[in-house]
Design goal:
- By secondary structure, this protein is an alpha+beta fold.
- The protein has one domain: PH-domain like, CATH 2.30.29.
- 33% of the residues lie in helices and 30% in strands.
- It is built from seven helices and eight strands, in the order H-E-H-H-H-E-H-E-E-H-E-E-E-E-H.
- Strands 1, 2, 3, 4, 5, 6, 7 and 8 form an eight-stranded antiparallel sheet that branches.
- Strand 7 and strand 8 form a beta hairpin.
- The longest helix is centred in the middle third of the chain and has 11 residues.
């Protein structure tokens, strides 16, 4: 039985005759991440708007909203969650999961290994106190946020990072990498299945 309810939806998202080998619900690891792609930086700069959160942080303390300061705090507290040049595979993937603009909704992230591609899917909004209809709606709104051919993924492995033994590191052929985790209380087996499907 599929405890997450996503198996059927993933089957609808893949191409005809594409076989799903494994999938896992995970989240991008906390920490210093690759910079956004150049085209994303242009879009953010071209928007001309300033977010309410940035204004509020500047009112509290001008030092809090510094991008370099935020990266330093991420690096010290969480470590490094990915590396790569702007526009690298890891950069594009991280940006696809965290697009610019305020979005306070909680969404599930799914890593899907198929015989052809690595897919990263994002669900519809997830409610904390949800009904069955809410859960079904969230699953039905799941879509592909990012994908790469199997040839673009150099390796995948699950290992320890600080106190978390369930951290999946995806290495790409362009030299970039990005990490994903599951909460400590959840099983790491789905992540290991995804890593095994990609590496095998």
């Amino acid at each position: 039985m599929d405890p997450t309810g996503y198996r059927d939806r993933i089957g609808q998202l893949v191409e005809p005759n594409e076989q799903v080998l494994a999938y896992a619900k995970a989240e991008a690891a906390q920490g210093a991440a690759p910079p956004p792609p150049p085209d994303a930086v242009k879009q953010e700069a071209g928007g001309g708007g300033v977010s309410a959160g940035a204004v509020l942080l500047n009112l509290i303390s001008p030092l809090i909203s510094s991008e370099r300061g935020d990266r330093l705090v991420d690096r010290v507290v969480w470590g490094i969650a990915g590396r790569g040049a702007p526009g690298s595979a890891a950069s594009r993937l991280r940006h696809a999961l965290h697009p610019p603009g305020p979005d306070l909704t909680v969404r599930d992230t799914l890593l899907v290994a198929t015989d052809r591609r690595l897919l990263v899917c994002v669900s519809g909004p997830v409610k904390v106190l949800s009904s069955r209809k809410d859960d079904e709606r969230s699953v039905a709104e799941t879509g592909i946020a990012w994908s790469a051919s199997r040839a673009e993924v150099a390796s995948a492995r699950v290992g320890w990072h600080r106190l978390n033994p369930k951290r999946l590191r995806l290495d790409f052929t362009d030299g970039s990498w990005l990490a994903f985790t599951v909460p400590i209380a959840e099983s790491g087996r789905p992540l290991r299945d995804v890593a095994g499907a990609i590496s095998g």
